[in-house]
Fold this protein.
Amino acid sequence: DGGITQSPKYLFRKEGQNVTLSCEQNLNHDAMYWYRQDPGQGLRLIYYSQIVNDFQKGDIAEGYSVSREKKESFPLTVTSAQKNPTAFYLCASSVHRYTEAFFGQGTRLTVV
Amino acid sequence: KQEVTQIPAALSVPEGENLVLNCSFTDSAIYNLQWFRQDPGKGLTSLLLIQSSQREQTSGRLNASLDKSSGRSTLYIAASQPGDSATYLCAVATNAGKSTFGDGTTLTVKP
């Protein structure tokens, strides 16, 4: 069953903690992306990666970090430097950067 | 900087009606445009992808058009059904491979 799996579905973070969101795909896609969605708004790009061991900052990268050590995995760490991390986080992948993007089911992060 | 606008923000129609959702963008130097559907609390489902060289794409009751010169795309939904109720987003990809999303149109189809 091919697709993109995000985990966990819900995540709670205390002030000052780092948390890592998981994104795994078995579609053999080269490109992967992380987006943030706030209520009633569209998606904003955090980071993207076009090949293994390479990634670029998106429009709102401050307070976030990523790694791309394996083709199928693109974890996102929300650091304590991110002042307003409560949001819905979506991971996507595509064959390469110019092709159709497919999304996971998202992780809802809440700061408590 | 590319800006993408979707109007209206919300739309309510009776079942069976044909409808059009709009997406406009400020920079016509795009690579492609993609329409998505999002159900509450869920991820995005890809509906249609239009390359910059294409004028339209069709899938079932959905038809998407693209006019690059005027910076507009429309998503036409024929014979709407209650199951079509969702938020519809458009995303415009630039030659740098990054996509800019609109804020979406929330559609409600009443039985």
Observations:
- The mean pLDDT of chain A is 93.
- The radius of gyration of chain A is 13 Å.
- Chain A has no helices and eleven strands.
